[in-house]
Specification:
alpha+beta; Metallo-beta-lactamase, Chain A; 7-stranded mixed sheet; 20% helix; globular
Length: 281
């Protein structure tokens, strides 16, 4: 896909599993398991899917997946699967290495989005992309280093504190235009200061909706995660962005749907729903 000066690539970073009830909140299991079947531990399969934008001068990565700093115990708990795909193999398939990345825009600092930001070099943690500047909302960083008891298990400080210590993390305050094609849109329902990404030119808009709509199944308004810090705020954010996406014919890119990479929308008598689904550009 080409948007403005950028060629857009899907970066598959592996798969993992989370409890289906947690992923769909108040929605009963007989409804959500029709599209997201659970395993024997009630976990549903989720993708760690990222985006890479390539221009003549920039290679911008959106989120970094789960990373490789997992203990065997946690690999089993979260059903971490790097066998079928990984960030490294996805970059290699484009003839790129970590050193080629110029910018890393992090939506938020939950482990499944920022785990790949750092790596171990012998016993020392260091930035995984040695030539990149990393970007995060200041409000999100402040929350991540001092989270609530509800969500502290979603933040692994080894994924992001070393970036600040190395001086490569730029903290942004509020919505902004990153460049001619990239807009940062800030939402607060899932976690404080999650920055979503709108990539657009005069003819095409791709919306990296991250954990506002983690999968296709989360398009209906009540289908929200139990992980959300402010679920009623999530409701309003979903309504607003879905309407804009429908009116302006955006393509929604899903970070976690195990099968569908992006989709378009349509209006129905039940509300806004998915129109066409795609698994690749």
């Amino acid at each position: 896909m080409k948007i403005g000066k950028y060629t857009v690539h899907i970066i598959d970073s592996g798969y993992f599993g989370l409890d289906g009830g947690a992923m769909f909140g108040v929605v009963p299991k007989p409804l959500w398991e029709k599209t997201n079947p659970a395993d024997e531990q009630n976990r549903i399969k989720l993708a760690a899917r990222n985006l890479l934008l390539v221009s003549d001068s920039k290679k911008i990565l959106f989120d970094t997946g789960m990373g490789n700093k997992w203990s065997e115990k946690n690999k089993k708990i979260y059903a971490v699967d790097h066998v079928s795909s990984s960030l490294e193999r996805s970059l290699s398939g484009l003839n790129l290495t970590r050193g080629d990345i110029t910018d890393v825009i992090i939506t938020h600092l939950h482990f499944d989005h920022s785990g790949g930001c750092t790596v171990y070099n012998n016993s020392k943690l260091e930035p995984a992309f040695p030539n990149a500047t990393y970007y995060i909302q200041k409000q999100q960083y402040q929350w991540a280093v001092n989270p609530s008891e509800k969500d502290q298990g979603s933040f692994f400080k080894d994924d992001f504190v070393p970036l600040k210590e190395e001086g490569v993390l730029l903290q942004i305050e509020g919505e902004k235009k990153f460049d001619d094609e990239i807009d940062l849109i800030v939402v607060h329902g899932h976690t404080f200061g999650q920055q979503l990404l709108k990539i657009s030119d005069l003819s095409n808009t791709l919306f990296y909706c991250c954990d506002l709509f983690p999968t296709v199944s989360h398009i209906p308004i009540p289908y929200m995660m139990g992980y959300d810090i402010q679920p009623l705020i999530t409701v309003e954010e979903k309504k607003k962005l879905l309407k804009t996406a429908l009116d302006e014919d955006w393509k929604l890119f899903f970070a976690h749907d195990p099968e569908i990479a992006y989709a378009t929308l349509k209006s129905t008598d039940k509300g806004i729903r998915v129109k066409d689904r795609f698994n690749s550009f």
